[in-house]
Amino acid sequence: MALSAVNSSTGDSTALDPVADLAAPTPVAGPPVGCSGVVLEAHFLLRHGVATSTANGTSTNGLQLTASRVDLVIGDVAMPAAGALVLQQKFSVRWANTTAPDYVLLPLSGAPGYLPGFPLLAGLAETATAGDGSIKKAVARFTAGLTLPGAAAAGRYSGSPDGGISLGFGYNTSSSCSIGFTRAQLKAYCTANDPTQTISSLLGGWLTQLTSEQVMLGTWGNSDPTNINQWVTLKSSNWPPTADLEWVEATGTCNNLVTGFSFNILTGVAWAEGNLQSKVLYGQLCFTYGSWTYNDMVGANLQSFQLHFTAGFMPKEQQQPTLAMKPAPPLALPLPPDLFYPFMTSGAAAPPPAGVHMLVKVALTLVVVALVWQH
């Protein structure tokens, strides 16, 4: 069985040696106090294929297990301020044909439009040079779609995006987590004047990917990761921080901190007869800034300071297009203006064509026949 470590944000796998690469978790002094190198998830993939066996001159086909793999999600956990740590782990088993590429095993969220509540497809833009020298662009999909950072044990932040909350299309979502500081620790953090330290420790390398606009959002619920034209870039705003951290000793307040961010997603619909298809039109990442104040009434104990994250879906105002319809057919066939010549004239008209006289005779004959039939 092959063993690999998975980046839970991108889905990228790195082969592991069970002896050399796996080690016991190591303690982290904090804040917050915790452990690194903890197995958070284990996902088994079993591949099968058709095998042909021959016995007594007869060939038979049957299924056989051709390969197996387990992907481990390894991350950090934070210890609660009091009480025991409750560690949540995830496990899954999937079956796939031996010829199926890995990317087709990821679930879709619509066909083609998004279904409400299904994961918002997201991934990282990647570029590679093909053998013929051409540049190929594709998207390495996140396994859980776009996520918000989530809380670990006792509401503490997880230290990585591994415990993220998946965003359901069309559903506004919010999450929060906390980081613990004593007054001395908050002052030391603030006077170090690194506004990005907390958010960087929370997101890790994901912060760089977000702020450098490497993250892509799937336009459709079934956007093809090999077709870059079916994806839109998640734009980043008000980053990096422009103001220095400011410590106010009298109130125990640290100003100009990064206190979270929000994903703003603009959605629209593609019109189809009786079947509207929802899509993503634009995405933006906006950071929020604020202050943390230590409550001196509590004493020198560890206090929790909140980080808030939100995601909002905003539908674009659209008017239903006018249906292209052909004009209704006339109720009666159009007649030439000189049909009743010479009984009706409009000015000096040119002599009618020879065929008109015959048409008039036929019409008068039909009228006479009708009158006779009535009598």
List keywords for this structure.
6-stranded mixed sheet; mainly beta; 375 residues
The share of residues in helices is 10-25%
- As an assembly, this protein is single chain
User: Which structural class do you get from the secondary structure elements?
Assistant: mainly beta
N-to-C CA distance: 102 Å
Order of helices and strands: EEEEEEEEEEEHHHEEEEEEH
How many strands in all?
17
Number of distinct helices: 4
Q: Which runs of at least 5 residues are low in confidence (pLDDT < 50)?
A: none
Percent in strands:
35-45%
| Average residue pLDDT | 79
The major β-sheet equals: 9 strands, mixed
Cα gyration radius (Å): 35 Å
**What form results from the Cα inertia axes?**
flat
Structure write-up:
This protein has 375 residues and is mainly beta. It has four helices and 17 strands. The strands form three sheets. Strands 7, 8, 11, 12, 13, 14, 15, 16 and 17 form a nine-stranded mixed β-sheet that branches. Strands 1, 2, 3, 4, 5 and 6 form a six-stranded mixed β-sheet that branches. A hairpin with a 4-residue loop joins strand 14 and strand 15. The termini are far apart.
